[in-house]
Amino acid sequence: MSPQARPKWPRARRRAARSDDHALTRRARDALRDMASKARRHQPAFIEPCLPPRALKPPTGSEWLQEIKLDGWRVEAVKDGKRVRLFTRRGHDWTNRFGPVGKAVAALPAETLILDGELVAEDPHGRPDFGLLRRALKGEGSPELVYHAFDILHLDGEDTRPLRLLERKTRLVDVLEPAPQANVRLVESFAVAGPKLLGAACHHGFEGIVSKRRDAPYRSGASHDWLRSRVRRKWHSRSSAYPRNVIAWRSY
């Protein structure tokens, strides 16, 4: 049959066909929009960190775990595939300032994750030195930068914040142990009384401790699920009967 001899569709049938095409197009657009929305929900992004308030004294109950507080910069590491971004606690992207740490996080065995931790600069003896870190941020010197991770907020599409601290610690160990990185380390938790660990922190010259409720979820902002205590030095006069350099604890 020649093109001229082809029968024409009735007008109502043509309108129905166009309506079906428009409906299919709308459904396809809606499906794509839903997929994009789900992808955004599962895509890791900066999360406001938990900020421990001051403690009058370190807690001692069995519901608390204790961690050493390092003298460094609070940093949140966000990994999405091979892309890693390092944020300050206020959400500033400082990835370019901490290059070696970003590469180490990128090598961890997870497609997406968000870590919370402290970035420190180490002196030749492996001890955190905040002065070295500040000079490194100004471009003065190149000390060894190490990221000490103490929590995990997201892992391969799962929001881990509702989990108990002990469960999150297990997830964190599962990520860090299979592929150890020189520039990424785990912050250990200790089931001991706060004053005892603070005394050890004083003795070894650390900044202080952070006490955390073992069964609490991760909460952004100020939360009494985490408490912090810091050491300080007291300087006495020469006439004092005590040594000049005495370390005591205080909250901060």
Q: How would you describe this structure to a colleague?
A:
Strand 6 and strand 7 form a beta hairpin. This protein has 5 helices and 12 strands. The protein folds into 2 domains: 50-70 and 188-252, Dna Ligase, domain 1 (2-Layer Sandwich), CATH 3.30.1490.70; 71-186, DNA ligase/mRNA capping enzyme (D-amino Acid Aminotransferase, Chain A, domain 1), CATH 3.30.470. Strands 3, 4, 5, 6, 7 and 8 form a 6-stranded mixed β-sheet that branches. With 252 residues, it is of the alpha+beta class. The longest helix has 32 residues, at 11-42. Residues 36-41 and 235-252 have low confidence and may be disordered.
Biggest sheet character:
6 strands, mixed
* Count of beta strands: 12
- Given the C-alpha coordinates, what overall shape results? globular
Structural class by secondary-structure content: alpha+beta
Terminal Cα separation, in Å? 91 Å
Instruction: Determine the number of helices (DSSP H or I, runs of at least 4 residues).
Output: 5
Radius of gyration: 27 Å
Look at the structure and give the mean pLDDT. Answer: 81
CATH architecture classification of the largest domain: 2-Layer Sandwich
Count of the separate structural domains: 2
Helix/strand order? HEEEEHEHEEHEHEEEE
Name the CATH homologous superfamily of the largest domain.
DNA ligase/mRNA capping enzyme
Helix content: 25-40%
CATH class of the largest domain: Alpha Beta
Strand content: 25-35%
Low-confidence stretches: 36-41, 235-252
Q: At the third CATH level, what is the topology name of the largest domain?
A: D-amino Acid Aminotransferase, Chain A, domain 1
